[in-house]
Structures are given as structure tokens and as C-alpha cells.
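Final report, results section. Input specification for complex C-07:
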Amino acid sequence: MERQIRRLGIALMVLFVIAFAQVNYLQVFAADRIADDPANAQRQLIAEYKVDRGSILAADGTTVLASSRKSPGDLRFQRRYPHGELYAHETGFYSFVFGRTELEQTYNDFLAGDAPELLQQTLTDLILGRPKQGASIVTTLVPEIQEVAAAEAAAEAGDVAIAAIDPATGDVLALVSEPTYDPNLLASQDPKVVRDAWDVLNEDPEKPLLSRASDELFPPGSTFKLVTASAALENGFGPDSLWPNPNELDLPLTDATIENFGGSTCSGGSQITLADALRQSCNVVFGAVGLELGADALAEQAREYGFTAEPGEDLVPFDIPWTSGVFPAPETFAEREPAVAISAIGQQDVAANPLQMALVAAAIGNGGVEMQPRLVTEARDPTGQVIAEFAPREFSQPLSAANAAALTQMMVGVVESGTGTAAQIPGVTVAGKTGTAQHGEGANPHAWFVSFAPAEAPEVAVAVIVLDGGSLSSEATGGALAAPIARAVLEAALGV
Amino acid sequence: MSRVAAPRSRTSLAPSIAFTVLALILSIGAYVIAGYGKRGQLPATFILYATIFAAGYAGALVVIRAFAPRADPALFPTAAVLVGLGFAMIFRLSGGLAAEQATWIVVGLIAFALTVIVVRDARMLDAYTYTIGLLGLLLLLLPVAPGIGQTINGARLWVQIGPLGFQPAEIGKVLIVVFLASYLTQKRELLQVATWRIGPFRLPPAKHLGPVLLAWGASLAILFLQRDLGASLLYFGIFVVMLWVATGRAAYLVIGLILFVAGAYLGWLLFDHVQLRVDIWLNALDPARVFDQGYGQLAQAQFGMASGGLVGTGLGQGSPGLIPFASTDFIFAAIGEELGLLGSTAILLLYLVLVGKGLRVGLRAPDGFSTLLAVGLSTLVALQAFVIVGGVTRIIPLTGVTLPFVSYGGSSLVSNFVLLGLLVRVSSGPLAPRGAG
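Structure output:
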């Protein structure tokens, strides 16, 4: 029997060696592939929630927009948004049911502690048996401006979206879209609370999850005349160039005409200057400017400001997903040249949102240089040490410094004695442009105001849209409805 | 056959104490770490369970020294570490299950002590060949009996008498091994005679093939009646191995293997649940089925072990609660998740030590019956451990058996302690030597 027992011993050992080989395969060689299987989401999430996720901070470096706190549940940490709705569209949410959005998603590597800059910290945590800690990120959002913008938006009966940026750096000082939502509901650790909140938010016809300031597109209306005016200046038509001033513009080859707002005739005689046309927002003149310049020149100018010809393509990089403005490709005007006139006044196929229009205003105010919008300036490790800095970046130069100065003066005229007088701030020169955008038969117009101040050395550019006529319904105009809101935000930013 | 018994002497006390203390430290240590991992503090049950382990292991050591003084000093401690690691994992999964398991550990240790004390000489059992065989068979078939049999998780393995539920097959397994050791020792000469040959294999007369076919039929019957794939495979495997060891005839292995393949194929043809097991084995991680019943269970085990990686998440830090049956059939995956490759390898090594020691006990035993008994019991532990580890890690299709000494479950734990008691007895030799048989 002895021989059999020895052989049996070897055979049984072989079985255990096979088992040993298989556990090596499962736990070492194929471990990452198997553990990353999408079907293992639950375990991955539980592991993810073991991390003491880094905070999202305001520009002051102390105001907390999002932070983690210990949770008594199965998931060790819970995400908290101390200001509720105020920064929802910028922080996004961090939900174990619906994943991450906005900054929570874009800067996840830093927040979750996976960025290579954090390796040393992570190893220390591992050795000391501490929960892994993520890095904090410091945003450009200024609580005083964001709060005023949100309060102004909330006070208006209609839906409002506002973008405020620093022209010199592109820093996004405030980004507000009303209605909004409370990300705390989606960060709850009770799946039922999360799903219920999700259903309510998604079924809400006002779509509170959507940021109208940067995710959606609207006709920019007369605020787009800033782009058309830029193209005119860049193509040799000065602010004092004279343009015919009829009470309507016949569109060649069609029965259609372009009229001024309310069917009026702009004042100043049979010919008026480009500057006067902008001040009064004359559709007839700017339609003619568009026809004179042609589709190529307008499209080129729009592209330099960041308007894409391919909806869905974002020319201007941003820290959170957004939708840049749209201006149709010049080829699309081939068979319908007159449509250029309509596009030149920001109607029909042209689309933008407050962030895009704030970039246009900021570029004009910044001597013709457009900065990329920036939402995050730096990441800090848990000890407060800066581990990554994100410098301001130039996007383009849509117009020369001289033309930028000229256009600025034209915009000052709008606020001093044109359609935008409601944006005047005592002691501060404000440059602005109104817009009252038609969109669909019978719908009340969107009211726009795009501005920056102080005109001579801008510290802030603000774009405001009040949707569907807001509290003034069909009587809404950019000057009456949006300009006062812009003024309040400008004042908050300038501290006056 | 008639090997001369090696002169035995009482093993020295030091290694016995050292191994037992080491087992105690590992068991209590794992449990305390699990407590910290779970709640961040010393478990509230610390004094109770630490006392149970300390008193229980010390008591076992005293019994071994008193009644089996020449036993291998590592046998009991090796099993005790397995029990301790299993308990820590069960405690980590559920405090309630841990309380029950602690009770069963106490009962199991008492059963171990009684086995060592009552069975003063392994050869006592040799006298009751057919009584033990019949009893074993009865226990195997008891769950089929109407009225007291219970079907749980698709297999008819349980007997419910009043409030007491148990799996008689667990202790039945041990008795069947005792019976086979006794029966084969008596018949081995008959079974060894080769009268005809096929190729290189010499075969005994056809009538002596009867027992093999009978065992095969019994295994298939278990599969039929109780739908218990694991047990069926285990019994047949043990029988063929013991027959081969007893007779030295490789032909039995070959015939056994052919019958096994035929039986497995037959089972696959006839039973949906066998087909399903095979499909689950092959397609556990198929994205289309990974959340289905059965597939998801095995997939979770893979995810758990993969997430554990080399060093594991740490006791109390992983999510073994996501693995169905984590405390019983799938405890190996739960250990793999929280203790990593190091933990799962440690478990495999402990079995290797236990089985190796068991076979060594067989080699050193003075008589054929004792040899075959030790070999059979060791093989039972080895095959059962491999069947469930292989099933959980997808080496072979999963068949539900417990991981010996580790899994939660009273019947299994108590039976394995009885098995260990018998090994210790054979290892030590008769309590009052009456001369070698």
C-alpha cells in the first residue's frame, strides 16, 4: 500500500497546485480585468466611497462647495453640498446610483486621490491604514457674485441664466441657471431617495438638471451684432462708416424683409454710422452689413469667437461639458444668400448661451484677446500643498486691439444713450449690448444683455438671458428685463 | 501487509503546546482583526469567544496528551487554524452566524474529545464492518425519508426532527470511509487477484467488480434521489481511491475513471440542474447572464477574489456580503477577497499540511485497517476541499459542499472534528497497546 499512498500524496498535491495556480490567475494575473468588469459595479462603488473625497472650494479657497463626511451606512463617506442649489450646475453631483457629473466627473482623478501627483500621499495613507484622501480643487467661482446672480435670477419670474467671467483670465466668477436643483438629494445613500429625486428632476418640464448658462442653446438675437460689428471692423468698416437707414431691408431674391424692432425707423437720417446702428440696435443696418460682408467673413469671425459650425463640437475647451455657440458653415448659405442678413442679427440658425456671449464680451473688453473660460485654478493635497496649477490660456484673437477699443466705445454708447441705459452704474463706464431674440411663432422673446465694466479696464464681463419674455411676457426686451440683472451682477463683481 | 509497527514513543510536550498556542493566537487574532475591520473596535463578544477558543483548544490538547499521547502534534492545531480563520470570516459576515458557529465549535470539540476517548483503539471499529456500513448508508438516505427530510437550496440533504435540523450525510461520509477501510482490508486479497487482462491492466474476476459497480450505482442514486452532485462525486472518488490503495490495482482507477465520465455524462444528459451547473461554470462572467441566478453567484465570487488581489482588502474591509452563501459554500471566495492571495494560499497550504500529515499517519499505521482508514479520511478532506475550492474558483463546475473545518455549519463541523479525532487516534496508536495486530 505504501507505494499507492505516496502516489496518492503526489496526486492530491497536484490538485492543490492546480488550485493554487487558479487563485494566482484570479487574484493576480487576471485580477484587474475581472475586478473592473462592469458587472462588478457595486463592489467598485463601495471601494470608491471608501475614499475621503477631496473638497470643491470657491475662489477664496475656504468656502466649501462640496465635501465628504463620514457616513454610518455601508458606504463609508457621503458627499455633501453645503450650499444646496447654489453651485449645483458647476459641482455637478456625485451619486452612487447615477454616477458623477460636471466637476465631480472632470476632476475625479484629483478628488478621488487617483492623480499621479497624489501617489506619495496615497502610499502614506495605505501604510498608516488611514482612509485614502483625495485632493481638493479650488474653483474660480466667487461666492459674493454667485449669490447676487442667483438672487437676481430667483427674483425674476421667468427662467434666467447668467455667466460672469474675468476678461483677463477667463475665470468664471459666477455661472447661474434658474431653475436649479439640490445635488444633496442625488448624493443621498438611500437608493430610493436618489431614484425618487432623479425621477422628479427628470420629469420636471423646467428641466432643472440642465444648465441654461452653458448646456443649452438659444438664438442670441441682437447681442450677436457684436460679432457682426467685429467682422465689419476687421474688414475695414470703421465705427463711423455710413450705412443706408431705410425702415425695412428687402432681402434679395425673396419676398422677405427685415424690419427694425417694432417696425420703427432708426433715428439719424437716411444714412447712419455703424456705431449709431449698434447703439439703436438697427436690424435693417446690420442685415445690410451681413449681406455686404458675406457668409464667409461672418462665419470666420464667429469661429474666432468660438462659435462652431458643427453642433456638438466644442471649439472652446472648458472644465465641464458645455455647448459652444453655433454659426452655420458658409456653404450652407450658397443657395440662400439672403439668409446671411438674418444670421447677422443673431436669428434663425445662429445659437448661443450666456457663457458663449460672455466670452464674446470679454474678448472685446480684453483688447481683442479671448481667454479660455477657466473654472479650476489649482488642486491641493490634504495638507493644503498645491499639487497642480491650471494657468489661464488664450483661446484666440478675434479682433485687433484697435478694433476692440473701437467696439468697446460703440458698446459704451449703447449703455450711455442707446437700448441699454438700464445697465448704467454711477461712476462706472459700462459697455453693453441688448438682445431681444425671437424664437418661434407666438413665443415671447428671450431677453439678453451682454456687458463688461469698467469699459476702460474691464474686471468682469456678464451675459444674462431671461427666457420667454420672463415677467414682461411679449413686452420683454433685453434693455428692460436683462440689463438690470446684468447691472446687479456687475455691481457685485466690482464691489460698488 | 504485515509491516512491523515502528516503535512509538510519547511525543514531547513542547511542540504540542507551541502548535496549539500558535493556532490559538491565529484564531483569536483573526477574529479580533475582523472585529476592528467591521466596527473599528474590540468586538463586544471578545471575552466570550476568546474564552471558548482558549478553553476549547487547551481542553483538546489535554485530551490528546492524556488519551492519544503519541499523536502527531501538528494534526489538531492545523485543523484548529482552519476553524479559527473560518470563524473570523463568519463573524465578519454575521454576528448571529458566529454565535451559532461558536456553539458548534464547542460541540465539535466535545465530539472530538469523545472520539479520542471512546475509540481507544482504531481497530475496535474494524469489528463492526457492516453495522457501521449500514448506519452510514442509513444516514445518507435519511433525508429521502418522507416526513423528516427537507429540501433546502434544491438538494434534499436535511433532516428535521423537532427543532433540530442536521445533515446526516456529513457524519454518514465519515462512517462510509470507516466501513470501506474495514471492508477493503478484509477483501483486498480477493480483489487483488488478477485473472484476466486488458492491455497493460490486469483485472480481477468479474464477480469482484461487483463492489465497484455497486458504489457507482449508489453514487448515481444519490445524484438521482438527492440531486446532490457534490456528494455523489465525493463518494465515488473516495471509493475508487481507497480501492486502488488497498489493492494496488491501477485497473480500478481506470475503470473508475471511465465509470465516472460515463456517470457524469449520464447526469448531464438526464438532469437539467447538471446542465445548468456546467453552463454556469463556463459562462459565469458572460455579460448577458452575469446577473442571473447561479451565474451571478459564481461571478460575485470571481469579483470578490479579484478585488482582493494579492493582499486582500483586509478583514472587515471588503464586500464579501455580496457573495451569496459567503459563510458556507463560498467562504473560500470571501477569504480570498479579504485576505487576498496570501489568505487563499494559506488555506490551501493548511489543507496540504493536514492531508500530508494524514497520509503519513496512514503510512506509519501498524495495520492495514488503520492505514486505509487514515488514507480514506485524509482523501475525504482533500477531495472535499478541492471540489469546493475548484468549484468556487471555476476550475470545475460548482457543486455545493462545505469547505472542511472552515465553512459555517454544525453537521459539517462536528463530523470533521470526529474525522480529526479518528486521525489523531490512528496517529497515536491504541491507548493501551495490546501488541501489534
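The domain at 221-375+392-494 of chain A is CATH 3.40.710.10 (Beta-lactamase). Chain A is about 40% helix and 15% strand. This concludes the modelling results for the funded period.
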